[in-house]
Amino acid sequence: MPAAQPFTLNSYDALDAVALLYRVGFVQLRFGDGSLRTIRVRTAHTVWVDYDPDAYEAHRNRYDVVVNGTPIDWDHTYIEYERRMVNLRLLYTYRNQQPIIPPRYRLP
Q1: What number of helices (H) and strands (E) belong to the chain?
Q2: Which end of the chain is more exposed for a tag (fewer CB within 10 A), N or C?
Q3: Which of 79, 97, 85 lies closest to 27, judged by CA?
Q4: What is the pLDDT of residue 82?
């Protein structure tokens, strides 16, 4: 099943993402010019976005994640995963697989 556009999560993955954000404690934003900004995770919660009648039954309610009062920019947010900084969207796009993480989804 392709990822929803705009990118959203089912309830299970949304709650998992919030727990991951609290456990790691920070994210990094990567801007177009390659610069980085580290942000401490003070608050994280889910927000219901939409209902997708075409999705699997347990995945029909779609959620976004809000960190420190701002919705996550899924394409530019990185989190520590397996001792590397990995794009957060990648982790939830390939949720049930062991992704081979291409360089463009990792930070050096």
Answers
A1: 2, 8
A2: C
A3: 79
A4: 81
